[in-house]
From TrEMBL:
Superkingdom to which the source organism belongs: Bacteria
Species of provenance: Sphingomonas aurea
CDD domains listed in its UniProt record: EcCS_like (cd06114)
Signal peptide: none
One annotated GO molecular function: citrate synthase activity
Residue spans crossing the bilayer: 363-386
Lineage, highest ranks first: Bacteria, Pseudomonadati, Pseudomonadota, Alphaproteobacteria, Sphingomonadales
Catalytic activity: oxaloacetate + acetyl-CoA + H2O = citrate + CoA + H(+)
Keyword Membrane: yes
Entries under SUPFAM superfamilies matching the protein: Citrate synthase
Protein name: Citrate synthase
Length: 427
């Protein structure tokens, strides 16, 4: 048992229990603090705040460790499949062969979307960003699947979870097809989760589509790498939205909206755009200088992380996957050399060393996704597709957490104190 933490305020002392997890830093339980002291804590960006207890994902940012339910991300990326990881995150244990088969079949059976949803797509401009479409269409799912929006019914929660995981590739592929003016493809239940997604995205009804097994494997691995990441901004958004009792489709739409930002999931798109802008390795020093310049808002996209102060373990796998995809597709993108050189120069630069800024998952993902054939605007959509598993698992964990309350942070008010209203004619 760790000794309680003592807070002294206005000459009075208060003791707060210290809670320990299975690994990771202890937390000070300050739930009673406001009631006892009439003071709040101040922590913009939640840099020192644990918002919940969770059994799903553990990150040691200093060591560059990422575990899902105790399994290292490198092992999962190497040896498992996205469906297996989805099962693991949702259920807590790796599935047996039979459990995996049943789970995959269940997900496959939910891949079709309501036919009316195709009409919904047609309301968007063709040049709409696919993330804008994702926010709208996923939010609209609650209008199509009323029978799985009662969050108090465990069976409905399971169906909604399966539906979200299953339909996300279909919706993502539809968003792509819509932007290029090609017909939507229905899912093919004979294919794997990832193979099906590739076919719905890159296939056309006019001819058969052969899934390239190497690309399928790489894509599946990319999905694994993005499946969950503890209480990041979009996951916290999903939990916060869900804390009010909102239905899961609405909560996941909120997560998608948050993920879109360039500081979060939008960074993969921004990172590739940055590499394209840099163009050749000779121009790297100019961009490194800009990233270090306090008067320039430019940042090296795909670099730095709130939690990792070491190499992001997902970036290690991602870098390796670039070569595998290049070999499989017999392509070579000079931007990969630019990325490798940029990483090398940044990791030897005092600014990046002192601030512990390392490549994150988004640094190399753009190079791979572009080689597979995705336009940059689809990158964050792929992130959303994979992260839906994490969002859904975290949402389920929150709903069943006895400590769960509506999320309601407080503030340090710095506006005017009460003043008299002056009618408009007298101002
Ligand atoms: N390039 C240059 N300087 C940077 C960078 C960067 N990419 N990232 C952080 N810094 C500097 C920052 O200017 C600050 O300097 P100072 O202490 O002198 O003010 C210091 O490092 C700490 O940065 P911060 O913004 O206070 O750190 P944070 O934890 O709030 O932000 C971050 C983390 C990921 C938003 C930030 O590193 C960033 O903007 N990176 C680029 C965007 C990116 O790649 N995002 C993807 C994150 S991983 C995928 C995901 O989770 O979605």
């Amino acid at each position: 048992m760790t000794d309680p933490a003592t807070l002294t305020l206005d000459g009075k002392s208060y003791d707060y229990p210290v809670m320990s997890g299975t690994i990771g830093p202890d937390v000070v339980d300050i739930r009673k603090m406001y009631g006892q002291t009439d003071a709040f804590t101040y922590d913009p960006g939640f840099t020192s705040t644990a918002s919940c207890q969770s059994k799903l994902t553990y990150i040691d940012g200093d060591q560059g460790v990422l575990l899902h339910r105790g399994y290292a991300i490198g092992d999962l990326a190497e040896q498992s499949s996205f469906m297996e990881v989805a099962y693991l995150l949702l259920n807590g244990e790796l599935p047996s062969q039979g459990e995996l088969k049943t789970f995959s079949t269940t997900i496959t059976r939910h891949t079709m979307v309501h036919e009316q949803l195709a009409t919904f797509f047609r309301g968007f401009r063709r040049d709409a960003h696919p993330m804008a479409i994702m926010c709208g269409v996923v939010g609209a799912l609650s209008a199509f699947y009323h029978d799985s929006t009662d969050i108090h019914d465990p069976a409905q929660r399971v169906i909604a979870s399966h539906r979200l995981i299953a339909k996300m590739p279909t919706i993502a592929a539809m968003a792509y097809k819509y932007s290029v003016g090609q017909p939507f493809l229905y899912p093919d239940n004979s294919l794997s989760y990832t193979g099906n997604f590739l076919r719905m995205t890159f296939g056309v009804p006019a001819e058969p589509y052969e899934v390239n097994p190497a690309v399928e494997k790489a894509m599946d691995r990319i999905f694994i790498l993005h499946a969950d990441h503890e209480q990041n901004a979009s996951t916290s958004t999903v939990r916060l939205a869900g804390s009010s009792g909102a239905n899961p489709f609405a909560c996941i739409a909120a997560g998608i909206a948050c993920l879109w930002g360039p500081a979060h999931g939008g960074a993969n798109e921004a990172a590739l755009n940055m590499l394209r802008e840099i163009g050749t390795p000779e121009r790297i020093p100019e961009y490194i200088a800009r990233a270090k310049d306090k008067n320039d808002p430019f940042r090296l996209m795909g670099f730095g992380h709130r939690v990792y102060k070491n190499y992001d373990p997902r970036a290690t796998v991602m870098q390796k996957t670039v070569r595998e995809v290049f070999d499989a597709l017999k392509v070579n993108d000079p931007l990969f050399d630019t990325a490798l050189r940029l990483e090398e120069l940044a990791l030897n630069d005092d600014y990046f060393v002192e601030k512990k800024l390392f490549p994150n998952v988004d640094f190399y993902s753009g190079v791979i996704l572009s080689a597979i054939g995705f336009p940059t605007s689809m990158f964050t959509v792929l992130f959303a597709l994979a992260r839906t598993v994490g969002w859904v698992a975290q949402w389920n964990e929150m709903i069943t957490d006895p400590d769960q309350k509506i999320g309601r942070p407080r503030q340090l008010y710095t506006g005017p104190t009460q003043r008299d209203y002056v009618p408009v004619g007298q101002r």
